[in-house]
Amino acid sequence: MSQKPLRIGVVCYPTYGGSGVVATELGKFMASSGHTVHFITYNQPVRLDILKENIYYHEVNVEDYPLFQYQPYELALSSKMVDTVLNEGIELLHVHYAIPHAYAAYMAREILKEKGVDIPIITTLHGTDITLVGKNPSYKPAVTFSINHSNKVTSVSESLRLETLSSFPVRKDIEVIPNFTDLETEPDDKGEMKANLAPKGEKLVTHVSNFRKVKRIDDVVNTFFGISQKIPSKLILIGDGPERQKAEDLGRSLGIVDRLIFLGRTREVRRVLAVSDLFLLPSEKESFGLAALEAMAAGVPVVSSNAGGLPEINQHGKTGYLADIGDVDAMVRFGLEVLSEDSVHQQFREAAFAQASKFSIDKIGQRYIELYRNALSAG
Questions:
Q1: Ramachandran angles phi, psi of 310, nearest 5°
Q2: Residues 6 or more apart from 243 whose CB is under 8 A from it?
């Protein structure tokens, strides 16, 4: 006998960042599986199609009061959660990020208890809420409280789970449920795109990020420079942020700016990855490395740092290579090894896709459904 569909409330940041993408794609998977999903946030998530069946969006409005220098988003969010749970019959709340979302969810749950409703909270830790924001002494007590008062807690990698346990006095079990990717078919215009981006048959090296310092964009450009001295190639940079101009300036100083292709915050990431030959991710910190996983799902070998959760995805010598943070010489060497021979490159491509298949949304989504049902049955 089939189990009844769930009614899920999702709270996330509606931005291009990894946590917002994961929350949105997971919600879409739940909706396509027959469950009802209500997104509660201050803007419509960038990857959310609110016209799809079983998907609803509830905007959190924060009034502008002259009394406050910073508007009290957590209060508005808690109130909106209470209102949505009561009016839509939501059975559980899945919040992405410890603060402010888990903190606001706790307050919503306490308010709901006074109205005779007890609703479980599932908190997923994504990285920045622990590695950067959470370690701020001003926020540490709130992060600890939010985790300990969630019904279920997950992290996107074993590395993040261990860092959380070492940084906070957490009493809750933390289950590792990794991020996921959608294994889509190749685009119809793959040949045309390749010819447009690499008209002389150049290799296409790609990087996707928010161009913050932690992504080490200078290492991306310097690694590409070393590769391009041996193999005709172009570097495609997707995303935008504070380090974007520095990347262009460095490319100009190295004499390779004409081989850099800046695509900005394009929605065509999957199409670009489909024609890429190598993906670079030399980050200083990566709680998981979703960009690397999405590249591997497109059959693109990855040369990355060994930071955070990246070794849990990128298999050294098989799906690509891992290097110490900042070791540009090693990344150049590894990149050349991947690209120098077509037969070797093909082996890396096949292994990358096979590894990504282990993180398909169908497999990971089922783990979340099991978690949701366990949280509800625990009362």
A1: -60, -40
A2: 211, 212, 213, 215, 217, 218
Is the Cβ–Cβ distance between 91 and 7 less than 8 Å?
A: yes
Q: What count of residues does the chain have?
A: 379
Is there a domain that residue 131 lies in? yes
**Residue 313 near residue 288 (C-beta atoms within 8 A):** yes
Task: Report, as an integer, the average pLDDT of 70-75.
Answer: 74
Same domain, 163 and 216: no
**Side-chain-facing half-sphere of 262: CA atoms under 13 Å:** 18
Secondary structure of residue 102 in the 3-state scheme = helix
The parent domain of residue 246 ranges over 190-357
Check whether residue 111 and residue 171 sit in a common domain. Answer: yes
For residues 8 and 372, the answer to whether their CB atoms sit within 8 Å is: yes
Is residue 151 domain-shared with residue 230, that is, in the same domain?
no
Of 60, 55, 51, nearest to 26 by C-alpha is 55
Residue 255's domain is classified under what CATH number? 3.40.50.2000
DSSP 3-state assignment of 216? Answer: coil
Cα(379)–Cα(368) distance, integer angstroms: 17
Residue 93 has pLDDT above 90, yes or no: yes
Q: Which of 37, 76, 35 is nearest to 59 (CA)?
A: 76
Domains in the chain, number? 2
Q: pLDDT tens digits for 185-225?
A: 677 778 888 888 999 999 999 999 989 999 999 999 999 99
CB atoms < 10 A from the CB of 246, how many? 14
Residue 142 is assigned to a structural domain of this protein: yes
pLDDT of residue 232: 96
What average pLDDT does the structure give for the chain?
91
In a domain, 2, yes or no: no
Q: What is the rounded (10 degree) CA torsion for 335, 219, 132, 80?
A: -70
d(CA 225, CA 345): 20
pTM of the model: 0.87
Q: Which residues contact 175 (CB under 8 A, 6 or more apart)?
A: 152, 153, 154, 155, 371
